[in-house]
Write a structure and sequence with these properties.
The protein has 4 helices and no strands. The chain has 74 residues and is an all-alpha fold. The chain has one domain.
Length: 74
């Protein structure tokens, strides 16, 4: 699923949090919202991590969010 598709499904406060905290570890509630927004198929959204590690976004998603934050066309 393309990033813009699930991004549009997120509540605006979650999008703002992701912009403000881009590249950081994700709180559980944000992970849950992303999983819901992707229809339960977030395979390309999250970076590969150890099972006990907090989730992070994949590099390509971090780059996409940075572009959105900078007002660039994506």
């Amino acid at each position: 699923m393309e990033t813009w598709v699930w991004w549009e499904r997120l509540p605006p406060p979650t999008r703002e949090w992701l912009i403000d905290h881009n590249g950081e570890y994700l709180p559980a509630d944000v992970v849950d919202e992303i999983v819901d927004a992707t229809g339960g198929k977030p395979e390309e959204v999250f970076a590969v991590s150890e099972p006990d590690e907090p989730r992070r976004l994949a590099d390509k998603v971090v780059d996409w969010i940075e572009a959105v934050a900078n007002g660039e066309s994506v």
